[in-house]
Write a structure and sequence with these properties.
The protein is of the alpha/beta class and 633 residues long. Helix 14 crosses helix 16. The chain has 5 domains: 193 residues, 3-Layer(aba) Sandwich (Rossmann fold); 162 residues, 3-Layer(aba) Sandwich (Rossmann fold), CATH 3.40.50.300; 88 residues, Arc Repressor Mutant, subunit A (Orthogonal Bundle); 75 residues, Arc Repressor Mutant, subunit A (Orthogonal Bundle); 59 residues, Winged helix-like DNA-binding domain superfamily/Winged helix DNA-binding domain (Arc Repressor Mutant, subunit A). The longest helix has 23 residues. The chain contains 26 helices and 21 strands. The strands form 5 sheets. A 7-stranded parallel β-sheet has the order 3-4-2-5-6-1-7, sandwiched between helices.
Length: 633
């Protein structure tokens, strides 16, 4: 007998009612329909497959492209007493065999898989023996060549329909244009379909875009005005630390999060933010997947997002409690070129990928026609240096080879070598008197990494080797000696990745099979950049309308709260007067926007309009210190 969904919701999640549309989706799944659910971030997609699967006997197979999200969902289910597992990369064959047997005989309710796992015969064979009650395809837009994160391996999902043809599918996504929706239906062969689309409108979020040369100052003003929980998204790890420290120095409670910190640090930082011990989380774009914090007041993008899809997903982490919230993009004159440089200038061509693939095979001495399913430790930096590759373009090329199932790149960047000195300063220098041959290496470590006596610190072997002017192997031997002599505690990883070849080497013929995908994806990336630049630079159309139109919605009204809707009409006389005042002020010396604002009595919007007009007409220019000065005539 099927248990009622509301009883399951109350028992496991402690809720007494579903969010809008959830119950309709769940009932369609329980009734055996193939189901497509388009729900914006925060709409509660995971419950739409978890509840119906728990209502029935058997196990739900969940296909997801994101290892971190799989692990998070499995941990959440386990905490609720629900048996679930995720088959991530790096599991030995014998262990995989045992885990799959547990799914058949161990009363498991959820099995999370990456789409690549469906290529393994062992996995397909075991699925045939499982009592599968539902197939859930998360991030379903990945199956579409027009999707934001196209993964050709998603096309393997069709094999599940052949293996277990009587089991219905639910496909879920938070970001899908009309073209992508049609692709999902066709590629997953959805029949007897029940389709549900929740409006992407978030009427409580004010979408804002501001021109701002001094972004740090603007962030301070935003956070002073909105004292509740916030996220600041930045493009790189270094900025997360820099901005967080700057805010701490200004009296804000801030913390940072990125992929390079340890698991313990991630948990510590996340918990401090979730508990509101820290108001601000400064993070890279991966942060937030699977995290439901309802009281986030502001989401600020310090750098321009790479697509409307990713922006909307990140912006949607604000205001999940229904209260008014803000999603703010800060931009300036240099941002557009920086975005193009970061995402378009580093797109690898088909020719580049062919060259890199040949070099990769040579690097591991793979003979023509061989190499399939062989795995190799991979030092990415050494590989790039050996063949003089631009690291960013090479990394993107390897990502394409990974996404298209030519190779599998298992990254181990979270497993960097780490060291802690477990003796005091005096003891280590006494030790060096008797081991003078390692003096340069040890001192290079001590001078490079602060706090190494107080805690475990991640180190880069290449940096130490370069500073001490020795080979990496020499550094490794010294570290092992120090560990044996109980000077340090050591975790040593010599490589940063593992490469597994999934196809036999055929050089250009291997890449020719995916050439059309590479070209199409490069064109799509350019279009995505064009779309997001169109969005941030459009100061005439309601921001909410722009977003909803992009996702195919037609019943549109101005939101009344975005940066366009609240913009005051331009008074040309006032702007001209403001320009005259600024010129008079800058005749003396260059000033920052903050200094101009403090010295001239005017509205901020008026000042911004005037500065923008003056920049466009080459009346002023910006110095390296973000000051405005008059152009020489």
């Amino acid at each position: 007998m099927i248990e009622h969904p509301i009883n399951i919701l109350e028992h496991f999640w402690n809720y007494t009612e579903f969010k809008p549309m959830q119950e309709d989706v769940i009932n369609a799944v329980i009734d055996g329909h193939d189901t497509l659910a388009l729900m914006p971030t925060g709409g509660g997609k995971s419950l739409c497959f978890q509840v119906p699967s728990l209502a029935k006997d058997g196990i739900c197979i969940v296909i997801s492209p994101l290892i971190a999200l799989m692990k998070d969902q499995v941990n959440i289910l386990k905490d609720k007493g629900i048996k679930a597992m995720a088959l991530t990369s790096g599991i030995p064959y014998h262990e995989l065999d045992t885990l799959l047997d547990n799914c058949i005989y161990g009363n498991y309710k959820f099995l999370y898989l990456s789409p690549e796992r469906l290529q393994q015969e062992l996995v397909r064979d075991r699925i045939r023996q499982m009592d599968v009650n539902l197939i859930a395809v998360d991030e379903a837009h990945c199956i579409s060549q027009w999707g934001n994160d196209f993964r050709p391996a998603y096309k393997n999902i069709k094999t599940l329909r052949e293996i277990i043809p009587s089991v219905n599918i639910i496909a879920l996504t938070a970001t899908a244009t009309p073209d992508v929706v049609q692709d999902i239906i066709n590629e997953l062969d959805l029949i007897d379909l029940k389709s549900f689309k929740q409006s992407f409108a978030r009427p409580n979020i004010a979408f804002m875009t501001f021109d701002e040369e001094d972004k740090y100052y603007r962030i301070e003003k935003i956070l002073e005005k909105n004292l509740e929980s916030s996220i600041i998204y930045v493009r790189n790890r270094k900025l997360t630390v820099e901005i967080s420290k700057h805010l701490e120095n200004k009296g804000f409670k801030s913390i940072f999060y990125h992929g390079g910190i340890s698991s313990d640090q991630k948990s510590e930082h996340l918990n401090k933010w979730l508990s509101n011990e820290k108001q601000v989380m400064v993070a890279t774009s991966a942060f937030g997947m699977g995290i439901d914090k309802p009281d986030v007041k502001t989401v600020i993008h310090f750098n321009l997002p790479e697509s409307i899809e990713s922006y909307y997903q990140e912006a949607g982490r604000a205001g999940r409690n229904g209260n008014k919230a803000f999603s703010i993009v800060l931009k300036n004159k240099s941002d557009e070129q920086l975005l193009k440089n970061q995402f378009l200038q580093v797109l690898p061509s088909v020719k580049f990928i062919k060259g890199l693939y040949r070099k990769l095979c040579n690097y591991f001495q793979i003979s023509f026609g061989e190499g399939e399913f062989t795995s190799h430790e991979f030092n990415f930096n050494k590989f790039c240096k050996t063949y003089d590759f631009n690291p960013l373009i090479a990394y993107n090329a390897l990502q394409i080879l990974d996404r298209t199932s030519i190779v599998k790149m298992s990254q181990q960047f979270n497993k960097r070598s780490s060291v802690q000195f477990i003796v005091n300063n005096e003891r280590i220098f006494s030790y060096l008197k008797n081991h003078s041959q390692i003096d340069a290496i040890v001192k290079s470590i001590l001078r490079t990494y602060g706090g190494i006596f107080d805690q475990e610190v991640s180190i880069k072997l290449e940096i130490i080797a370069n500073k001490a002017e020795v080979k990496i192997d020499t550094v490794v031997n010294v570290l092992r000696q120090l560990e044996r002599d109980e000077m340090i505690s050591l975790k040593l990883f010599k490589t940063d990745a593992e490469i597994t070849f999934l196809q036999p080497r055929e050089d250009d013929r291997t890449i020719n099979r995916i050439a059309s995908i590479i070209k199409q994806q490069n064109d799509l990336k350019s279009k995505k950049i064009e779309d997001i630049l169109g969005y941030v630079n459009n100061n005439d159309t309601c921001k909410s309308r722009l977003l909803l139109s992009y996702f195919g919605e037609t019943k549109l009204e101005d939101c009344g709260i975005c940066s366009v809707c609240i913009k005051e009409p331009t008074d040309s006389h006032n702007v001209e007067y403001t320009v005259e005042q600024i010129v008079s002020l800058l005749n003396d010396k260059p000033h920052t926007s903050r200094e101009i604002s403090n010295k001239l009595t005017m509205k901020e919007s008026q000042l911004t309009q005037a500065l923008k007009l003056m920049l466009e007409n080459n009346i002023i220019t910006i110095t390296k210190t973000n000051s405005y000065k008059l152009k020489q005539t």
